[in-house]
Amino acid sequence: MSQVLFKNASLLDPRWDEARGGYEVLVEGDRIKEVSDKPIKAANARAVDCGMRTLMPGLIDCHVHVFLSEVNIRNLENVPLTLMTARAADLMKGMIDRGFTTVRDTGGADWGIKAAVESGLIVGPRLFISGRAIGPTGGHSDSRRRTDTGAPCGCCNAMVYCMAVADGADEVRRTVREQMRQGADQVKIMCSGGVASPYDPLDSLQFSEAEIAAATDEARNFGRYVLAHAYTPEAITRAVSNGVRTIEHGNLIDEKAAKLLKSRGGYMVANLVTYFVMKERAAQFGMTADMLAKNDIVLEGALKSLEICKKAGVKVGYGSDLLGQLQVEQSREFLFRAEVLKPLEIIRQATIVGAEVLRHEGKLGIVAPGAFADLIVVDGDPVKDLKLFLDQGAHLPAIMKAGQFHKNALK
Fold it and tell me: In the β-sheet with 267-270, what is the strand arrangement from edge to edge?
């Protein structure tokens, strides 16, 4: 089994409070075999001198959409699945170029694109897929126009392929089962209105309690869990009270809802960058005035939501939720969070907490024997300068996933 020995590294295991110099890390196959502050004996290993740069775990983004390649998702109506897949390949390469070695797709990515990445046909991060995001008629995942009378074909309409509509507990149960049959790692449901959907108010309560309970029951029976799109305290409370494990967005969360989420051992996956960047640039890509007005509402609560969750002790994962051409801004999430959180807190959200969200504690997000060899080398100490994660990976001379170099500019 091939070995790689990282030498002369300043090691940042996010469980520590700071990077520690003089470390070596031995990779064997797709795992980390040894971590030591003393020289490691490995005569047959390929040596990589880090030059006292920071060696740390690969980053984890817990809210991406690799198939949603348009800012105005209405434009996906004319995108066939072949073009959608080709665009996804380009978007995923960008993600791993930026140091994100693992991502959780929260609606759209299927077992086929995951298999393509795992087999090396497409370059990209580890994918945890949700299959089609599920919502009720008229909700955030109902892609029909008001003039549509039936369901459009999913084979030539990328938007339809990424979303599903189900009404009533029995239909929700069947649709959830179908996503899991198709290999979903987790199930995505809609519990409130959304920004990118034109017809549903943000404060609308979408799935009923019985429908949510049906989804979480089926996911639990299959060894999976449910994540819920939810902005308002009412939507968050309804979701968490009925078994939802992770809340996506949560911009308008209040202290009471945050305490409930904490008491149930749940997580929030915040996405600040998407709202700031949509305000800056989404109009030029066709996002409508109605959508942008809703964006302004959730943007107002974005930073405050992090403060509320921190006070309540809710663990928050790193998420970007960017659409289409805006996905290049994925790493700016670090800077927006830095307005209310310390750099190390944010790095932990993008590593340790992300691994917990994915239920891969001890396998991802740390540098320790037995963990997957998903590693990045940084030109400096990101705890002191989060801007090192910017510029499309320009400050990451080495990126490794599963023991294989995606990039290595070190001698």
Answer: 163-165, 133-135, 187-190, 226-230, 246-249, 267-270, 315-318
Statement to judge: residues 378 and 307 lie in one domain: no
Span 376-399, pLDDT tens digits: 999 999 999 999 999 999 999 999
Give the angle subtended at the CA of 257 by the CAs of 256 and 260, to the nearest 5°.
90
Residue 234, helix vs strand vs coil: helix
Q: Which domain holds residue 399?
A: 3-58+365-408
Give pLDDT tens digits for 198-215: 778 888 999 999 999 999
Distance between start and end Cα atoms, the chain: 22
Regarding pTM above 0.85, the answer is: yes
Lowest-pLDDT range, 26-35, 64-73, 222-231, 309-318? 64-73
Cα–Cα–Cα angle for 13, 344, 382, nearest 5°? 80
The neighbouring-strand residues paired with 72 are none
Here the CATH number for the domain that contains residue 155 is 3.20.20.140
What is the CATH classification number for the domain harbouring 48? 2.30.40.10
